[in-house]
Amino acid sequence: MKLQLTAILLCFCFLTSVSAQDPIDIIDKMYAAIKKMNKSSFELHSKERFGDKYVYKKMKFHIQESPRKVYMKDLDKGVELLYVSGWNNNKGYINPNGFPWVNVSLSIYDAQVVSENHHTVDDAGFGFVNVLLDGLETTRRSAGKSRSVLYVYKGEVTYEGRACYKIYLYPPTEFRYVSYTTDRDQTLMQLSRRIFASDYLIKKKNNLNYTRTIKKGTTLSVPSNYAKKVIAYIDKKTYMPIVQMLYDEQGLFEKFEYKKVVAYPKFQSNEFTTDCSTYGF
User: Fold this and answer.
1) Distances (CA, A) of 238 to 162, 164, 262
2) Which H or E run includes 27?
3) How far apart are CA 278 and CA 268, in angstroms?
4) Predicted TM-score (pTM) above 0.70
5) What residue range is the signal peptide (predicted)?
6) Helices in 37-187 by DSSP H: which ranges?
7) What are the boundaries of each domain within the chain?
8) 120 contacts 111 by C-beta, under 8 angstroms
């Protein structure tokens, strides 16, 4: 009887410790940590759905948030991209590591640049997670819902030796496709930010591209929310969302794993220039 009582008490203590974690507090700390981090470097391992198949990529990033500067290298193909806001006519400077064997400048929204990618270099880094959260919170307020409907604490998980909080994020309204008529001329990226939806899902559903202007009065089929569900692993020490899994009505459509994350790295004085010795331009 004494052993049974002890087991019950231990179980109660465990359940209490799990339920004591406030997902809203964890999310708010994550948001603040991302907002504060102006520089970062990491490897991004992505899994993105295209039709009935997944495309896997491994990329290295060096990022400065403000002013916006991004260096990216595809670790499998060796392709490099350098983007600095206000430089090179706001185009990406690209080392293709192959044909045509010369560095080229292309819009970061060009079809060749975003091929087999759900996102443009605009979205690179942890800052995009805060964009996603802003969308959830705005939609929640419009729906008159409590913040508690958005975030659910699912315990802890260890990811590559790092203790993480596991949080589920849900939209405040049902995920579905709805008819939307544009009220102004805008790009796909501008539209997706205004309605807090995935630019890739809008692009796929309506056969659009990033460079074409969507004219005022165009009727599109758009998702009502960015995703049906998001699962995030948030590092307990840094509050960085080092794993993100996003689902739509068909299942997983994006997964991002951040590895070798360095916050506030000491970049070289000529970092984010073509003269940087660690680049291949």
Assistant:
1) 10, 10, 10
2) helix 23-36
3) 9
4) yes
5) 1-20
6) 111-114, 127-143
7) 38-124+250-281
8) no
